[in-house]
Design goal:
A hairpin with a 2-residue loop joins β8 and β9. α3 crosses α5, α11 crosses α12 and α12 packs across α16. The protein is built from 16 helices and nine strands. By secondary structure, the protein is α/β, with parallel strands linked by helices. The protein has a five-stranded parallel β-sheet, sandwiched between helices. A two-stranded antiparallel sheet has the order 3-4. A two-stranded antiparallel ribbon has the order 8-9. The protein binds adenosine-5'-triphosphate (ATP) and magnesium ion. The site of magnesium ion has 3 residues, from α2.
Length: about 375
């Protein structure tokens, strides 16, 4: 029997849990043509959530998915944009080509259509024409939705990658100025690097300020994860006590990816019923599996940053910038503490919630505690 726990890919069906509130919000925005930005640190479940919402809402709407993971410049963005929007709107190549010909009459993209149906078609663009008429490309979803008389939702994943473009600010201005007139197309933009993305969408001086709703995705709560774990053991004829399921969720600090990964290892190590010994052994397995990754990460952290991480994990009743903590952990001055903190935030090693500062990766924190500190 296969493990019911999955990690490292978009989860669906029984492997997906909860997100009721966020699903409702997304579905309502899709219905009402409201743009959405979805932000969270890495591996908290953004892609899975948007896919799930699209599946639930698909009836009568066109969903188009654009993943910027491999996109490093504006031209690559435009080619992928044309390709994905057309592909989502037309099943037949001939129809797709004829729509492209009429709608993209200035851009005149070149299509390379493979003979076999397994490989994807490619879109080539003339750079000089694109520079003059990029708005024709950006308006493609709106034009197509009018033509097809269906709403179109354009979902753009890994949006933080626009950071690599030559002029990210100009690019954002171009998107915003075209998209703001669209009546039948809505945009759902998501990505990690929360602090960089927050600056794009929450900063009044940036083009995407008040572009739509900004959703900060949370982790999945203990109340949701515990029954999820128990159910998945049960349906695969293995048993886990509630206390042990709670232990997994607490140890992994409700982190969706790691709750699934640790549950998977425990499931593999269990024949009939989970015991404390199995959990302990599985945590060691988890640390071993990730250790080379963490060793690399550790090499990139300066001594003062390590001291700061130690302070987060240690007890510091007076707060991280109190004289007592600064002295105990050798953090220099309070100005220095602020500098270390913003460097670690940029690296996505820590995050803040109100006044609380925490290490984002609960397993890295555990590794530091057990192996280093
Ligand atoms: N709703 C969910 N229920 C159960 N597990 C989930 C859920 N969402 C995410 N996960 C777990 O977290 C992992 C990462 O999910 P996903 O790829 O959707 O996150 P992401 O935020 O898009 O990550 P990245 O920042 O790497 O793109 C999944 O493989 C799964 O193990
Ligand atoms: Mg993702």
């Amino acid at each position: 029997m296969n493990s019911p726990f999955q990690y490292g890919k978009v989860v669906e069906g029984d492997a997906f849990t909860n997100r009721k509130k966020e699903l409702k919000w997304l579905l309502s925005n899709f219905d009402n043509n409201i743009n959405t930005t979805l932000l969270s640190p890495r591996r908290w479940g953004k892609s899975s959530l948007v896919r799930r919402a699209a599946k639930t809402a698909a009836n009568g709407k066109i969903f188009c998915f654009i993943d910027l993971y491999n996109v490093r410049n504006e031209t690559e963005f435009y080619s992928l944009y044309i390709k994905q929007v057309l592909k989502a709107s037309y099943g037949k190549t001939q129809e797709l080509l004829s729509a492209a010909k009429t709608i993209l009459s200035k851009i005149k993209p070149k299509f390379t259509i493979p003979i076999d149906s397994k490989t994807d078609f490619q879109v080539q663009l003339d750079l000089d024409i694109v520079k003059q008429s990029y708005d024709e490309i950006l308006n493609l979803p709106e034009k197509l939705s009018q033509k097809k008389k269906k709403k179109i939702i354009v979902c753009i994943d890994e949006f933080q990658n626009i950071e690599y473009f030559d002029d990210p600010l100009l690019f954002q201005k171009r998107l915003r100025s075209a998209w703001q007139y669209h009546k039948n197309a809505a945009y759902c933009i998501y990505g990690s690097k929360k602090h960089m993305m927050m600056n794009l969408f929450d900063n009044p001086s940036m083009p995407f300020y008040k572009f739509g709703d900004v959703i900060y995705l949370d982790k999945i709560s203990e109340e949701d994860f515990v029954p999820f774990i128990i159910k998945n053991f049960n349906i695969t004829n293995k048993k886990i006590d509630t206390e042990f399921a709670k232990q997994i969720v607490k140890l992994m600090d409700c982190h969706p990816y790691y709750v699934q990964q640790l549950s998977h290892i425990i499931w593999i190590n269990t024949v009939i019923k989970v015991t404390q010994d199995i959990i302990d052994k599985s945590i060691e397995n988890l640390l071993e599996q990730n250790s080379s990754l963490y060793e690399n990460e550790y090499e990139d952290i300066s001594n003062s940053q390590i001291n700061f991480l130690k302070a987060i994990m240690g007890d510091n009743n007076g707060g991280l910038s109190s004289m007592e903590t600064i002295k105990k952990y050798n953090l220099g001055t309070s100005a220095n503490v602020a500098k270390i903190k913003s460097a670690l935030l940029r690296k996505e090693l820590i995050d803040t919630r109100g006044s609380r500062v925490f290490i984002l990766d609960p397993v890295f924190a555990l590794w530091l505690k057990r192996r280093i500190i």
